[in-house]
Specification:
The protein starts with 22 loop residues before the first strand and ends in a 19-residue tail after the last helix. The radius of gyration is 19 Å and the shape is globular. It is built from two helices and 24 strands. The strands form five sheets. Strands 1, 13, 14, 17, 18, 19, 20, 21 and 22 form a nine-stranded antiparallel beta sheet that branches. A hairpin with a 2-residue loop joins strand 23 and strand 24.
């Protein structure tokens, strides 16, 4: 029981009365996309019901431009640059945003009815490391007007206690709340644990939650999760309590309430049915998503 913990590690340990006791550990799938991009991807097709509302979670290491401007519609996409990343990203979209995403920052795009988007490392040769995340929208919001919002590294709330460091990038954790409000609330919590330190997270009973391990050893009810592993909890209990092994642990926790809705996907479009998908495809082909000049044709300048 949490009240018996001599080293709770984080305040939520005292709030968790029924810790989740079931965890499935899976390996992220490593893929190389040419010489400039390597990803480790959550095997979403195997875990769809257990990670809803998340659809794609991809840990990337990118050294140069990889994707030209491309469309999105029917969901949200977020880019989180890890604080230790050597460099950040530059971002632009057909809504008129053009900005730098620095290490430790997050940029969120609600694609909604459709938007064009491009991101790339801020300089070729440097290594940008972080997460690309696709988050489903509820059916009622799939065709909402597109928008974008950002959270700077300096504005991320941070907790340090008993060998536990918690960065609350999205949502709430251990008494801290991210200032970035998103259309469908989710949690993204970046955690570093010293050897033997504990992390606790209070959760709603129906929230899906999983941790993507970056380094070290994370001790969960399902066993030891190492670098490149993902610990997926069962949606039961009012929270989780994990601890670090002898090497410490670094992981990112993702959590959110599932939509439990039927959806179809066609490339960068996600829709509730074929009719809506047809509207997305037609909107893109007719220019309704707007226009975007590639960075290859209009390079980003530091003082833009």
């Amino acid at each position: 029981m949490p009240s018996e913990l001599t080293n709770p590690g984080s305040p939520d340990a005292l709030a968790v009365t029924t810790a989740r006791s079931s965890t499935v550990i899976v390996s992220a799938v490593e893929t190389r996309h040419g010489d400039l991009l390597r990803t480790r991807d959550l095997p979403s097709s195997k875990l769809s019901s257990g990670i809803d509302p998340f659809m794609v979670v991809s840990l990337y290491e990118m050294k140069g431009p990889t994707f030209p401007p491309h469309p999105h519609a029917g969901f949200s996409v977020a880019t989180y640059i890890l604080p230790e990343s050597e460099i950040g990203f530059i971002n632009q979209d057909s809504l008129g945003h053009r900005n730098r995403i620095s290490p430790g920052s997050l940029h969120w795009t609600t694609a909604g009815s459709g938007v064009l988007h491009e991101e790339q490392p801020e300089r070729t040769g440097g290594l940008a490391r972080g997460f690309q995340i696709w988050i489903d929208l509820p059916d009622a919001k799939r065709e909402c007007p597109p928008e974008a919002r950002s959270l700077s590294a300096a504005d991320v709330p941070v907790l340090q206690v008993d060998g536990t460091t918690v960065r609350v990038v999205l949502g709430t954790s251990n008494g801290l709340t991210s200032p970035l409000v998103t259309p469908n609330p989710v949690r993204l919590v970046d955690v570093a644990l010293a050897p033997g330190a504990r992390f606790a997270q209070s959760l709603d009973g129906d929230e899906n939650a999983f941790g993507f391990v970056l380094d070290g050893e994370l001790i969960t009810p399902g066993g030891l999760a190492g670098s490149g592993h993902v610990a997926v909890t069962a949606a039961q209990g009012d929270g989780l309590i994990w601890s670090a092994g002898s090497q410490g642990a670094r992981f990112v926790l993702f959590a959110g309430t599932p939509h439990a809705e039927t959806r179809i996907q066609h490339g960068p479009f996600v829709a509730r049915d074929r009719q809506q998908m047809a509207r997305f495809v037609a909107g893109f082909s007719t220019g309704a998503f707007g226009h975007l000049t590639s960075f290859a044709d209009a390079p980003y300048l530091a003082d833009d």
